[in-house]
Amino acid sequence: MKRYETVFVPTGDKAMSLAENIKALREENNLTQDQVAEALGVSFQAVSAWERNEYKPDTDKLIKLAELFDVSISAIAEERHKAFKTKEAIYNWEHMKTYVKTTAKNLKLYETLKAVDYAMEAHEGQKRKRSAIPYIYHPLNLACHALSMDIVEDEVIAACMLHDVVEDCGKTLEELPVNDETKELVDLLTRKKAPKEKRDEINEEYYLRIITNPKAALIKCMDRCNNLTTMSWGLSRDRIYRMIKETEEYYPRLIEVIKATPRYNNAAWLLKYQIESMLDIYKRLM
After folding, report:
1. Over the stretch 157-196, which tens digit does the pLDDT of each residue have?
2. How far apart, in whole angstroms, are the C-alpha atoms of residue 136 and residue 119?
3. Which pLDDT belongs to residue 192?
4. Same domain as 11, residue 116
5. CA dihedral 203, 229, 127, 109 (to 10 degrees)
6. If you average pLDDT over every residue of the chain, what do you get?
7. Angle at 37 (CA atoms; ends 236, 67), nearest 5 degrees
8. Which of 8, 128, 181, 266 has a CA positioned 20 to 30 A from the CA of residue 121?
9. Residues with Cβ within 8 Å of residue 178, at least 6 apart in sequence
């Protein structure tokens, strides 16, 4: 008698949806039954039995399937007609660009005007992870986030636009067409590349530097808000887990720095709510 490392269940709609989902996700990922079996440490007959609705994977194998297909467990176990349609972007990046530039002109935010054009050029051709969204959507989102909280400080909005150009675009601080304060903010927000074994050390150093500057802390919290909203489809399960742990460890300190700056009190309340509510949702779904 063959051993499938599985549990027998009666057939039914729920079991059938599980079988159909495993097969559909395997095919969407261009994997054979043999490849799935090898990745999970089971026989290909086990995978075939799952897909024929003869057996279902035990909990351990279900978790490994979710990791292999890079989806939630519910995406495998639930009927697909229960899935909601999702959006990769809420706002049109071109509309956001027009809004930021128009606002900057009206309020005479000259560093911001220079930063928008420079960021557009620096990020040209780049996309957000696992999507077709132009990368410029991200810095524009931060700039609009700041403006929506009535933060109209030129260097802050400009640094929102430029916060990733040194880290991701091969630019140097000296090349940036902005004043020294904006360059300092970009410098504080630029994280050094580090091997896995030095990740914790680099992170600690990185956040300790940001904490010295309330404006940098403000921008970094807005950056994390935007990244949290997109990580469900842009990051692997392992990376999502690390993002949650990092956020829990460092961001309460940043919020306290923001809160200690009177003009940012309202922003601190909103950012704390946004970050903690999103973390709670991810934890429940994970």
Report:
1. 999 999 999 999 999 999 999 999 999 999 999 998 888 8
2. 7
3. 87
4. no
5. -80
6. 89
7. 15
8. 181
9. 111, 114, 115, 118, 155, 158, 162
Looking from the CA of 50 toward its CB, the CA atoms found within 13 Å total 29
Residues 120 and 21 in one domain: no
Which CATH number characterizes residue 62's domain? 1.10.260.40
Question: Distances in Å between the alpha carbon of 221 and those of 131, 142, 224, 272?
Answer: 23, 10, 5, 9
Tell me, yes or no, whether 182 lies in a domain.
Answer: yes
Q: Are 57 and 6 in contact (CB under 8 A)?
A: yes
**In terms of residue numbers, what domain contains 12?**
6-82
Say which amino acid occupies 82: K
Residue 53 forms part of a structural domain: yes
Q: Domain for residue 1, yes or no?
A: no
**In which band, very low, low, confident or very high, does the pLDDT at 13 lie, cut at 50, 70 and 90?**
very low
DSSP for 17-50, please give it. HHHHHHHHHHHHTT--HHHHHHHHTS-HHHHHHH
pLDDT tens per residue, range 201-247: 999 999 999 999 999 999 999 999 999 988 877 777 788 889 999 99
CA–CA dist 283, 3 (Å, integer): 34
Higher pLDDT, 252 or 17: 252
pTM of the model: 0.76
CA distance 200 to 221: 19
Last residue of a domain, one of 17, 49, 82: 82
Is residue 47 located within the same domain as residue 126?
no
CA-to-CA dists, residue 263 to 90, 97, 269, 278, angstroms: 28, 26, 12, 25
Of 22, 54, 82, which residue sits at a domain end? 82
Q: Work out the average pLDDT over 5-19.
A: 52
Look up the CATH number of the domain holding residue 120: 1.10.3210.10
